Fold this sequence. Notes:
CATH architecture of the largest domain: Orthogonal Bundle
Low-confidence stretches: none
CATH superfamily of the largest domain: Hypothetical protein af1432
Radius of gyration: 18 Å
Number of helices: 10
Largest sheet: none
CATH topology of the largest domain: Hypothetical protein af1432
Strand content: under 5%
Distance between the termini: 52 Å
Number of strands: 0
Amino acid sequence: MIAIDEARSFYEGAESAHDFDHVLRVLALAERIARVEGADRDVVRTAVLLHDIARRDEGVTGEDHALAAERKARVLLTQRGATPDFIDAVAAAIRDHRFRTGAPPATLEAKILYDADKLDAIGAVGVARAYAVGGRTGQRIWSEVDKDDRIDPANPMASPAQHTPVREYVVKLARLKGTLHTPEARRIARGRHRFMVAYFARLEREVAGEA
């Protein structure tokens, strides 16, 4: 329904944490999970290719990129003659793929997009992406605000003036493993999560001059 080369064009100029390389990594994970879990692979593939097509506009319009991408996907798929059921399935997966906002994904295909997208946010790739964003936005490698006792447990996602990749790990990345829906994604997540825990523990020791 949506070819790889066409999808690539939707991400031209995207920043490195959410560029087409990210989409391809999510696609490989999603197709792997879909095979194991018995999902509709056409729905999964299409949803993955379109899930971040509105992210570049979010900073300008202020609209949640998942909702904007859902709307754009509906237009694209309608123009290509997709059935209403297929469009609804893809749109639902795109709408519910975010961690910070949105309802929990309800369909298997939506759960797979969510899981694959979150798997790409943890492990070695997840650390690299966090620091790519940090470098682009001028974040420090480490700050005292990273310490757990400086995070409000009632509102952990509230960002202080000084956000860092380490704080992103504490408030989001370390929590992602526990939000995954499919058994295959949870299995993959275990190793990626262990890597992050070890990496940030080592980083803290090195910053303190202990390692």
